[in-house]
Fold these 4 entries.
Entry 1:
Amino acid sequence: MTGPAALSLAYRLSAGAGHVRKLLPRRWTEGAPTGGQLAALGDDPLFRDTAWSKRILASQFRCEILRRFAETASLRDLDAFCERKVVYETGFDFARLRQLGRPLILATPHYGAYVMACMVALGDFGDRPVNIFYEDPARNPANAQFEAIFRRRPNANVLLNGRRGVIAAIKALRNNECLTMMPDVYLDVDDTIAVPFFGRLMRAMTGTAFFALHADALVAPVYVLPDDRFGIRIRISEPLDPRACRAGDEAQKLFRITRDLFADMERTFRRAPEHWVYWRSFGSLSSESRRAAPDAGLRGELQQRLRVVPFLARRVPALVSSMDDLADRVRQPARGRPGGAIPASGLCSPATTG
């Protein structure tokens, strides 16, 4: 049975899933990391005390039940859910965001019941279109589930990543419409930058920041947490405004907006980390942010940067083949920059991050 009553019952029974993990089929648990796997991710305090790992399975089960509800419930039941089972935890809700009078990007990471964020927004925006942007299922088969769910609402406009989708997204934003995006996923490392995230350097797409800059759009981070009684809590952070990025070129502005978005994600995840779906793959999505050892010299610093941003080695092979020669060159004074030294504060110096 997949009716609302059966799903509600299954939802409540899922609370203790983490405590009976060993009794569950492996295919049910393989996406949820254990405390030991989380502890191996680094020195951040979040990974030193991983008691929260027992809550991951319950969150995943509950979010899957909510996804099935969004897929199978009647629109009448969906409307009733949105009216009675949705609680906003901050001073922002979708109605207030609409009143800001600016193009709007809802940044919905894969955290909690993120599908429900779009469904609630579709309902709250009424007849106004909500443009839902994600990777083409031909490239990412996991996205095939989304279109059938979102198109249940007549004001949903699905846009797939690609030249046509990007152009359509910019046009929609310049028409003062709403766009939703998932900022915490990528397919090709060459399309990413690295930003600080839980003591590591996380690979991140700059698409959200790109749309914000080119359409003067606010970026509102949206998080949807499943509650204990078949409902959701929506947490909307203070929107990021691209107008705050006054200095620097476009690359620097893209970095700053992306960095600030991931900083907001980190603050939210720390409060309830069990709801992010990518903890198991976090190690492969990020790199340790420790700098090269003090005695490694500039050559070691360059090697560290190539490890953090690997596509540089493919695009500029000379960085690898002539590493020693390059290190000697950057020791020489450079015009316009006393000493010619490479900035030592991660990927960008304070001057380049705005």
Note: Residues 250-271 form the longest helix (22 residues).
Entry 2:
Amino acid sequence: MNSLRLFEIETRAAEIKLTEQESPDFGFCRRYSTNSSHHLLLKFYIYKESFDMHCRLLFFIAIAGLVLGSAAVAQDEPAKPSVPVFKDGEAQIVAEFKEEKNWIRHDLWVETQFDSDGDGKQDRVHVAVTRPQQTDTQGLVLPVIYETSPYFAGTGTNNRDFFWNPHQEIDQPPPTRLFAPQPIAKSNRPIISSSQLREWLPRGYVVVHSSSPGTGLSQGCPTVGGDNEALAPKAVIDWLCGRAKGFKEIDGDETVDAFWCSGKIGMTGTSYNGTLPLAAATTGVAGLEAIIPIAPNTSYYHYYRSNGLVRHPGGYMGEDIDVLYEFIHSGNPDRKEYCDCEVRDVEMRDGMDRTSGDYNAFWKGRDYLPKMSGMKAALLMSHAFNDWNVMPEHSVRIYEAAKQQGLPVQAYFHQDGHGGPPPLKQMNRWFTRYLHGVENGVEQEPRARIVREGKKHDEATSYADYPNPEAREVAFYLHGGGLTAGKLLTQPPAHQTPQTIVDNYSFDGAALAQADWTQHRLLYVSPKLTAPVHLSGYAQIDVRLAINKPAANLSVWLVSLPWNASSRALTTDNVITRGWADPQNHASIDRGMPLTPGQFYNVSFDLQPDDQVVAVGQQIGLLVFSSDRDFTLHPQPGTELTVDLDQTRLTLPIVGGQPAWDHALERPPAPRRGVPLK
């Protein structure tokens, strides 16, 4: 019997390797291909003794064909794999990543470390992934842009029939309200949302979305600021970094790995979606390198209360935290009864205290400022100074804390209303630096960018910091009768008679500011400005007042006059800033105490932070009144508030301080006779 030999020819590109080994069987020529298109294998099973000239000819023809074929395969391959491209410190659009038809989309469920819906199993949150096909075809590993939200699967009604009735006496129990029906969840698997895709995926990122606990196809209960809202995105980040399990189905065992993730994650989003990046960051989760919260709610107390006062977000009179719970609760109907009972009807009912408005353990648990110590992510904060829904203090307080902790931090502010991201260029540089690791110098750039009055959002002015480092406190005092319009001056007054106003929610702040005379507010106005005045930071009001009842609202507006009633008025034309407080909380926001009617109390609080240049020809006005029709409760009209004018003071943060204010009041020199004005 002739002995059998196996001759194996292996080639990588144009390299040929010939090996000989024993084989028990006779076979024919076979061709194999490994995962690499450059790696080809030929096997010949030939009797060694029969290896005549004919066989040798076939043998070497096969070798030649293999070499030529391998070279042709190599020639067809792209010269270089598709990778992110950077220019001037920014990730650029890569043509190979841009084609949506080539994007890979899939969804999964990530297992968390909590059971918030009481079913005895760890909650799983629904996650959607969209990534370039090169993460499969080329083994490309990329950073992630991640957005999570309770809104993606749909929301409930804004019908005011299901809101709280604002007609409530101060420090008295509220009227009952109707519960809203549960939202019907929308599902379009594997897609959760299309946000962020066109901005980031073509620039070399994977985009990930998830639905918050108790919303959409995510298990659990919504808690509106509870711990699970921070731990859910933490679990997703842990999965992206290989520390948590992902499953192909909500109740399945087949796992899914994020083999395409570099371990560098950035988060962004607006409003509620901007709150959750901060929530995740406060857990200190490894891998979350940078966040860009846009108009985030950083404290539900500051969203629904103010200095001991029940105060509603602008445009949502009667909304409270339990109303928002119903608005987002689009999750599993089978767990609705449990969630409603445990979260809305026990935890929220007992904790939110719509009677007093005091700051308590319930609200502290939904305040991210005390949790900042664990945060490691680089922070680019974005907010509007005229956002009366999620007010600017939400971002400023976190920005200040991040600076104190030594975190990389920048702030972008504009002059419009709710929402509004930084320019894409600024966001791109931030993520490029902290997710791709490109040294583009963002940490050496000015910390604050502020869009000035009347400018577009991409025309921001850079400042060393916010508040402006040149801002100095300047004190102003009340002179004369404020039922018409008294004077707002920097000289202290002497021995004035206190003035009394009567509460009446029927008149809103705009009407009170424009009234020639009214008993429902006090108005004090500065001289007309002959040079612009730049305000930057927190204005503070110190009021000494007495009330003829145990409780009342106190509202303060800072306005620019004359009032521009035009429909084309800019957001900066009239209201400069606002603030609200409950005089019962004059000593502490933690506990209000009933007032003794007729006794004077000192009430001090900050107005919302601002950065505004008040124009030449305008006057700065201080408006003091009781119930704010657009924000506070509406008690029965008639409560009297008496203000001690001599002991009341407004402090403004003026860039340049007292000299800048004095300059703004200087009378411009009269032109010399015979010299034309230019």
Note: The longest strand covers residues 261-270.
Entry 3:
Amino acid sequence: MKKLAITIFFDTFTLMLLGLIIVMSASSTYSVLRFDSVFHLFSSHLFKVGAGFTFMILLSFIPYEIYKSISKPAIISISLILIITLFIAPNIKGASRWLDLGIISIQPSDIARLLLLIHLAFLIEEKHYMLDNFRQGFLPMFIWVILISSLIIIQPNISTGMLLVLVSFSVMYVGGIKFRHLFYSLSAFAAAGFVVAMIFSHSRDRIISFLNSVINGGDINLQVKQALYSLGSGGIIGVGVGNSMQSNLFLPEAYGDFIFAILGEELGFIGVVFVLFGYLILLFAGILIAKKAKDRFGQLLAFGITISIVTNAFVNIAVTTGLLPTTGLPLRILFAGGGTGGHLFPAIAVAEQIKDMKPEAEILFVGTSSKIEGKVVPKLGYKFKSIWIKGFSRQFRLENFLFPLKLFVSVVQSLIINMRFKPSVAIGSGGYVSGPAIFGASIMGAKVILLEQNSFPGITTRLLERFADEVHISFEDTKKYLKRKSISRLTGNPVRRNLGTENKDKALETFGLKPPVKTLLILGGSLGAKSINDATAKNITGLENIGIQIIWQTGELYFNQYRDMNSEKIKVYKFIEDMNAAYSACDLLLARAGATTIAEILALGIPSVLVPSPNVAENHQYYNAKSLADKNAVVLMEDNKLNEMMVNIVNETITSDEKLAGLIKNASALAKPEAAEIIARNAVNYMEST
């Protein structure tokens, strides 16, 4: 017995030490980005391992017979704690599992698993003479198993509850319970478990996705796919500790549930075999200790603990390698923002990336039904909830007196939406609507990511900053206006995924124009910009005299006023549907300095003259354009100088190939085409690790 105990001790210590090394390697990148410390997650894990190791040593000096006397009160107490947990535990990722004890947080379900095994061993020993009897032998044990596992399942923690049933029935079978009693009850429970799993959308989606990948050869879960990439790239001896590529945010939960994949990548086939061999040693040594225990209680307790540890380990490995469907909680993310396309479309770009990374993720947009988000979001297939909020007008209007009431109602609506949806992460992309919605999500414990598209942050961003975990900015200048500079990330403004350029001659043909004449593209937004349209009309002869051709989007409000100016070299449009063709056709762009326009011209390297609108909140368009003009990435022309300077600035820019080339080079250098992917990956990591 002593040799077996020593074997288990050193086997456990070796696996624990190896785990610490791989956790340190797998968590370093995420720790730096999330906590500004390479060792943050490792330190937390080391503390827990140290505490566990200390308890293991202390408990080894306690005779296991003592657990018999505390079996009944312990199982009753943990049942009550599990019930209380459902009501008082914070909702994290849609589940109530954790109890915060100040220094440490615990999952009562982990304690419940051990106490249930202790109680089953006690009952089997106590009722050994009536184990064949269904009512007096099997039923009391079955009730405790169903009670504890059900309390765990409804947290929800379906996989843990189902595994607990499997391990408990294994102990009962070894203890002498009739096979037919176990078989019938397990079959009924499995059927009920399947029904429950299909009721919860997150588990249903995972099961269907898994079956589709197995039966029909469909796509496998992205997380599993990345895990297999990780395992496959390890080869025989691995890439070496600290050299994993997948741990650099490619594999969500790399330092947690999918740590086995990183182990395989860094230590290779040899490392995987070593770990599997370590668990097999633990299995055989545990069973041998169970056989040599002096009483039935000790035998069943040793067997149950051994089977529980090894089963959980091998189920984790099976999930990592795609042999079993992934488990976990619903990945729910809430987006709030709108009022204008500049606030909405960056959020949509991030949502599309998240759907690519996590097809099973549940996405909800919150906005106002009367604005652009109320029309666009439902058409894209995303869930949409409307709240009453509306911005405070800078002009005197009677509706401004309703603002406090609308704000209060919107906060209440947002709290209700968040309580029902239970998001893990909330992304605010600006506009008044994001205020109540993101505040509500923060109150409910969601991680908060803010997107600030403008050089000077809007009032909503400045108010929500205190609740945020990250603020993604598009301009370096923005950081100086934020109070919490440490959470800012210069990521760029997300752009739509289908943004791109095409053959210039083909693009010109789309608009009825011909090369090699240089082309000026004039934009004023979907509704139009009065001052730009007026200046264009007033200077149209001067622009024609430069020897250029013009694509002119007047906007819906002004099209009828200028449609008659359409000619062979001047193409007037109410709205341009194919912006990729418009960008590809032009040699120079003249437009407002909205955040979305800027993100697109930087991504495509479009030479631009930006005319900031003087009618926007906090003059943010001027700061946008000024920030770029200071880096010679655009030409800045103020709105009040349009009439007198338009022809000269266009002429000086579009006729100078050297100046155009400089603008292209400098604009492209500031581009952040990966912004949507980076933000989406951070959001997914929050969802996976919360």
Note: Residues 450 and 471 are 5 Å apart (CA to CA).
Entry 4:
Amino acid sequence: MYRFFLTAALICAGCLPATEAQTLIDLVPGPEGSFPADFAEAGEVTVFSGIHPDLGRELWVTDGTPDGSRLLRDIRPGSVTSSLTNFVSWDGRAYFYAIDDTGRHLWVSDGTEQGTHKVVASGGPAPQSLIENAIAGGLLFFPGNTPATGVELWATDGTEAGTRLVRNIVPGSGDSSPRQLRALGDRVVFSADRGSSGRELWISDGTSGGTTLVKDINPGSADSDPGLFRAVGDRILFVASTPDEGEELWVTDGTEAGTQLVADINAGPADSEITGMVALDDRVLFTAFTADTGQELWTSDGTPGGTRLVRDISPGPTSSDEVLGFPTGRLGAGIVFAAATPDAGYEPWYSDGTAAGTYQLADVRPGSASGIPGFEAYQVLGDRLYFLASAKETGAELWQTDGTIGGTVLTLDLNPGSETGLAATSLRTSHGALIAAASDGSTGVELLVLREPAVTSRAFTGAGTYRFGTRVGATLEVAGGGAQGSARISAERFDAAPTNAGSIPEPYVVPTRWVVRLSAGTLSAATFRIDLSTVSGAPPTLKAYSRPVPGSGSFTALATTYESAADQLVVTGVEGLGEIVLASSEPTDREPDAEVRGLALATAPNPTPGVTTVTLTLAAAGPTSVTLSDLLGRRVATLYEGPLGAGAHRIAADLSALPAGVYLVRAEAGGAVASRPLTVVR
């Protein structure tokens, strides 16, 4: 059982934004729910853990469709759960640990039942944790436990033969308990407790001889307890504690001499209470405490002079208690985080590391109540960050931001009203989609798949050229206009026909449309250039129409010309924002056979329920390839690869196994490239 949701395209800030169809896949029909979690890519699919009413929590797989979502393997047969967790995607497979009848083991899956097995068939270490940040030098490092060695550092290349103990730091069965592993080039840094030196900073290249203590920061058997490791270039910034400075910010390049205190932020032996650390290109953002400012937002480039307070969000000694430190919190040149002020509870904020670039994005729940129940669940997809927020009217639902105030909006109210629709800690991006655990009120907590809209956002500065990329397939040239504040302009593409299009006189409306938005400011005398290599229809006959509000109102004709050299439709006279559509006096499924530098490409039938013919005409013989890709640019099929003679060639393609949607047929021959959209329908 599954449901589709489609929200309308709206321009106003605070309204539901335009999104593509969301699919709620009811894996376990009824009110119980499968409570999916721990999503990880494996080949072309996503594996995850979910609860089966008869089998407990076991391994599932999805390709994002109801028919492609199923139980993959009952690792611990029967009703006892296998407690699988700590999923890591690496080199086309998913790694995790699970408990079977012989204990806890490291498992691997390529998304098939045959390709899901223990890495070490018999025996091997019991992994204590797995993290993607611990992949370095072609190895996945992890703490593992055996009766003979205790908890020590292990590494695997994904094979049984390549899974080995790196070093028994505490000889015998004692534990050094490696923690907080983080890649630094082709090595990993981590903390470990040797006993005689306490818990200190270590580094490993995957060999016993190359696994060494970097520095005894707190000399003797006492701990400096290093942690919060974040890579910035060829260095790691981290937190460690000494008696004289307390817990403060340190930096290391992996050598003893290059391991230094960066700054004693809260001067003296008191801790600066650093919590959360997010790495940007050349610096980190984090929170720290001083008596004058309380807990506030700081930044550091790893030098004393480059370590400073970003902004005292809650002025004076009162803390704003920012919540940072989640690996997906980065958005563009800054981060999204939660902060509290005297007038508001925890709400979403953005910072690029400067005081002027640090601001509140939205007051989701006005007043002193918090709109952010927690930032355990948020992910970046495209140029937007999706997160869980709770408004009084909707309950906890999915929100999104592009880093601007106008672009921070509710994505969808899955369970209408004040009930919760989205489960916390369940958000993940996989294969160009957002995957979450959610309920619409009629199901238990089940699998939600949200496909990324083809949308690109750019900072708006007035007159200029704004290129929106190949997925949107358009460029906006603005001759006049004014920006306000941190304004952003966006173009969003939908591969679906517009609704309420009766005011368009042409009989054939192209099933592709665009919505242009501006968060603040004005534009005028703009030209919208559409790359027709991604649009079905005959270019010379296409006309463009627009209306201010997508989905409602009448369309107005716009001046259009076709530029054959660039294969672009040039739409002029765009004076405002709204929806732009194309229409033709000829059927839009008749694609042009226009030659592109000695290469012509056509498909028929198009749309197709499965079988179509690609007609390729070459001016000269030579090596030729014909491929099929989705709109994310991922190749899904090779239709032909080899030499072809001059003239016309027909290539039959059976696409019946592909999901419905829009794809791109791309041909290359003799240095020329041609592409045409192909729609698969069901």
Note: The first strand starts at residue 2 and ends at 5.
